[in-house]
Amino acid sequence: MLAATVRATAAPLGSRPCAGDLCLAVASVSPECDNETVLKLFTQHKELVSLPVVEGGRPFGLINRHIFLSQIVRPFHRELYDRKSCIAFMDKSPLIVDAATGIDEMADLAVAYGEKALADGFIITSGGRYLGIGIGIDLMRAVSEMHALQHRQIVQSIEYASVIQNAMLAPSRQAMAAALADSCLAWEPRDHVGGDFYHFLRHERGWLAVIADCTGHGVPGAFMTLIFSSALDRALALHGPMHPDRLLGEINVRIKDALGQVEGRADGTPSSNDGCDALLICMDSAESVMRWSSARMSAYLLPADGGEPAELAGNRMGVGYIETPHGYAWPSHQRMVTPGDVLFTTTDGLTDQVGGERRIMYGKRRLLALLKRCRELPMPELAQALQQEHRDYQGSQIRRDDLTFWGWRA
Prior knowledge:
alpha+beta; Phosphatase 2c, domain 1; 17 strands; elongated
């Protein structure tokens, strides 16, 4: 009446976690087995959650321990059922899975099957023939371990991607430190890597600084910074560093072409609508003239004479998006720069951060108040004051976006 116990081996099934890894060696009974025998098995094997019923090597049903015991001990049930077939208390439609079924698919099947699959367990087969049973708690543990492993792998990949992104930005950071006597730079991706980007280079007449906030954060944002960086390199090769308006126009074309983000395409709507906000500043040191072009990014100049901060003129058209015309031309602006003037710009990750007692955005008003209050400080100290105030304001709220700011004193 009792079949020999077996233990499935997962080795032939490959290295990915599968149902066979959960297979337990459990004795099976045949449909001819009576309930008295089943009761003895459950009594002898306290750990047995369910007892499989197998006929001719193929699963026939599953007897749940708790359901069986609760029924058999009822008045007169032993007299009525002891000598009858065990199928009287058997689940005739248990969850049956092949040993090669992946753990992720196994979890989906268990959820679709309902809580019975977790409470009773499930039958594991190979080629339709009975191998053993799986227990719900083991499945839950395997799913948890698999997700934990996947999470570790993803985090490790992102952490190494952060090394690469930092290495990509390092030359600009070093060039900026060498060229500017009093400046500050903060780059804080929300998720190890991010969609904020900066670039700095010296040229024969001065320098060019680029700050960009690309769509998204994390890995998608980081991919966008690679596209932006490639577009910027191409734009610089074509137009040089002295014309920020031309650079923005060329970057726009390159991003739209790279992502196929062109309105009225014959093959339908583009699958993405991504781009960036950006500010390009070219300093002509020989003439003390600053030229800039801005695509939806604010910047402020605090005059050396202590006057009110002036917001640099910008443009409300983003770079690279579907709605941005392919040949859009951003205006170029310029102004004289006086020694002691302070220039500051930031991505919206700073101003849009929610916090404070009212849980509202940090906003431009608080930023300008701090800039005016700390304008006489060396730029690194101003940056430290801003970062501390911003962290205090954020408090227990989650970081909403990548954060980048840059400041320079002439």
